[in-house]
Amino acid sequence: MSGTMRRSSQWPGFRRTAGNTGARGFTAIEVLIAMTIMIIGAAAIMSMQKASVLGNLDARKTDIANSIARTWIERLQRDSMQWTLPSSLDRTGDNFALAHLLNHPTDTWFLPSDYLAGGNSYGFDILGRDLAAGDIAADATKATAGAQFCVEVQVTTLVAKELFRVQVRVVWPRGIGSAPAGFCTKVLDPTPDMTLYHAIYVTTAIKENPVQ
């Protein structure tokens, strides 16, 4: 028996190949398993990114819609400043008609189209800026044209010619795409289709501002 010890090279997984002593490669099954795991992980990451983008977009649009709703509440309150009679100086007069936006006390939703003077509008672009009357009904299938947010108003009589409840509704399309053609050209009555649109509501009470 020789005094030298012969070392075995038969380790688990060891495969001797000509010209590449002791090297071991990946089998086709191992490569396919690795690719499958990588594809599943990539799909999960892409889904998370899509959800994150949609969440950020919805949050930004909701913030813009809130700002638009508050702006229109202020416009309605400013418009009501024209309603000053009757008062202690004129107990029989009535100038309620001067408050144009309030002259819809029918408890139905309407587009406030009778108050577009001074750059005011009921249609707004993607940045929340008032659109000119002629641009509201533009081709809204293009991201740069047409209203992306629409304001609708409801006036409900609480006390005849004394107190009104006014609701402002701001509507905008769901998703990343632009608003559909014809958006903001008519009221989405009685309520917007919530599978297609988002909407927020702001309510205030308005009464006359009599001259003392």
Fold and architecture overview:
The chain is of the alpha+beta class and 212 residues long. The chain has one domain (34-207). Helix content is 27%, strand content 17%. It contains two helices and five strands; from the N terminus they run αββαβββ. The protein has helices spanning 28-80, 133-136; strands spanning 109-110, 123-124, 149-159, 163-173, 197-207. Strands 1, 2, 3, 4 and 5 form a five-stranded antiparallel sheet that branches. β3 and β4 (163-173) form a beta hairpin. The radius of gyration is 33 Å and the shape is elongated. The mean pLDDT is 81.
Q: Structural class, from secondary structure content?
A: alpha+beta
Q: What helical percentage do the residues reach? A: 25-40%
Contiguous low-pLDDT stretches (5 residues minimum) are: none
Q: Report strand %.
A: 15-25%
N-to-C CA distance:
126 Å
Mean pLDDT: 81
Could you state the order of secondary-structure elements as H and E? HEEHEEE
C-alpha geometry = elongated
Largest sheet geometry: 5 strands, antiparallel
Oligomeric composition of the shown chains = single chain
Give short descriptive properties of this protein.
5-stranded antiparallel sheet; 17% strand; 212 residues; 27% helix
How would you summarize this macromolecular structure in one to three sentences?
The protein is α+β, with helices and mostly antiparallel strands and 212 residues long.
